[in-house]
Amino acid sequence: MPTTILTTTSSTRPGSPSAGDAYFETDTKNYIIYDGANWRGYNSDGVSGWSGSNTYSLNFDGTDDYLTAASIVTPTAQQGTISAWVKSTTTSFSPIFNISSNTNGDTGYWTGLQFSGGSPGKLEFGHRPNAGDYILYTSASTYNDGNWHHVMVTTNGSAYKLFIDGAEDTGATASGTNNSNVVGGWIGDMAVKNSCNIGVQRRNADSTNGYFSGNIDEVAVWDSDQSSNISTIYNSGTPGNLLPLNPNHWWRMGDGAEGGSGSTVYDMSLGSVNATIVNQANFDNTTAP
Predict the structure, then answer these.
(1) Judgement on whether residues 146 and 28 belong to the same structural domain of the protein
(2) What's the domain count of the chain?
(3) Range of the domain at 13
(4) So what's the pLDDT on residue 51?
(5) CATH number of the domain within which 122 lies
(6) pLDDT value for 181
(7) How far apart are CA 97 and CA 199, in angstroms?
(8) Are 34 and 154 part of one and the same domain?
(9) Cβ-contact 163, 152 below 8 angstroms
(10) CA-CA distance, 67 to 278, in Å (whole number)?
(11) Kind and range of the H or E element at 233?
C-alpha cells in the first residue's frame, strides 16, 4: 500500500499522463485513473461515474430505436427532476425520457420530457397520472434547430419549473384536461407504471406512441427538486460531473462503464438501473454537447 497518494483537482489534472497514472481529486472526492485515452473516475463505493470528459451521445433514428430501463425509476417519488441534453430537427412528437403504463392504450398513464407533438419543435413536460387528468407544460420557443440544448423539469410537489439552456422558461404555458388537478404531480401519483424508457413512449404492451429522432445525452433523474442547482447541472453549456449532486439515476450515453460500445447503457449513479439498447440506437462520438 502506498504511503503517499498523489492529489489533483478536476481543473488541474496532469496534461501529459501515462496509462495507469492515478490521483485523488480533492474537489470531487473521486479517485481517477488514466486508461491511456481518458481519465476514469472511481468513487470509494466502486461506482465509475465521471471520466473527466463527454465524448459520446446516443443517436436515435426516429423509427424504432430506444432504451428500456431495467426497472421503474423512483416509483414513489412525490418531488423530482429530469435532466437531459438533446439535439434534433424533429417536427413530430419525440419522447426523450418517459415512464408510462404499457397496458392501457391511448388512455394510459405517463410522465416525461419530450419534443411536443401539438406545438412542433417546442420542448415539453407531460404528466398524466390517471385516465382523466393530464397537463402539458410547453416551452415558449422552439428548439428543433439541430443544435444541442439542455432541458430540465423540476417539481417541489406543487409547482413545475421548466429550464432550457440553464435558465427558467418563465413563458412556458400549461394546457391539458383538468390540469389544475395534477399540477406539480410526479411519478408517485401515477395509478399504473410499468414501463421506463428513453427515446420512446411505450403503451399497450409493445405498441408505441412516437420515437425520438436525433441525439440524446446525459440523462439524469432525481427524486428531489434540483432547481436550485441548475447552474451546476447546466455548467455553462458543457455537461459536467453530476455525482456531487447525488442523482438517483444517470445514464451517460456512451461515456459510462459501457465505453461507447455494447448494448447496455449503465446507470452511473448509486441507483444502478441500467438501460438496454433496442433496435440499434448508435453511440455517436462525432457529436456531444
Answers:
(1) no
(2) 2
(3) 7-42
(4) 72
(5) 2.60.120.200
(6) 87
(7) 6
(8) no
(9) yes
(10) 6
(11) helix 230-234
- Does residue 186 fall inside a structural domain? yes
User: Scanning the structure block, which residue is given the C-alpha cell 419534443?
Assistant: 115
Tell me what percent of the chain is helix, strand and coil, each rounded to the nearest 5. 10, 40, 50
C-alpha dihedral, 132 to 143 to 260 to 245, nearest 10°: -70
Q: What is the pLDDT of residue 46?
A: 40
Q: Are 278 and 202 in contact (CB under 8 A)?
A: no
- Pair 76, 195 in one domain: yes
β-bridge pairing 122-128 and 134-142: antiparallel
- Determine the pLDDT at residue 15: 83
Q: How many degrees, rounded to 5, is the angle at CA 66 between CA 64 and CA 71? A: 140
Our CA angle for 88, 91, 96, nearest 5°, is 50
The whole-angstrom separation of Cα 220 and Cα 260 is 18
Which one-letter DSSP state was computed for residue 267? B
pTM > 0.70: yes or no: yes
Q: Looking at the structure, do residues 80 and 218 belong to the same domain, yes or no?
A: yes
Name the residue type at position 113. Answer: L
Within-domain flag for 289: no
The CA distance from 59 to 199, in Å, is 10
Cβ contact 85:57 at 8 Å? yes
Contacts of 210 (CB under 8 A, 6+ apart): 92, 93, 94, 95, 114, 117, 200, 201
Per-residue cell: 241 = 460531473
CB 50 within 8 A of CB 30: yes
Q: Cα–Cα distances in Å, from 170 out to 43, 103, 160, 226? A: 37, 35, 11, 17
Low-confidence ranges of the chain (pLDDT < 70): 1-5, 10-11, 25, 27-30, 37-38, 40-49, 102-107, 203-207
What integer pLDDT is reported at residue 206 of this predicted model? 54
Determine contact, residues 85/216, Cβ cutoff 8 Å: yes
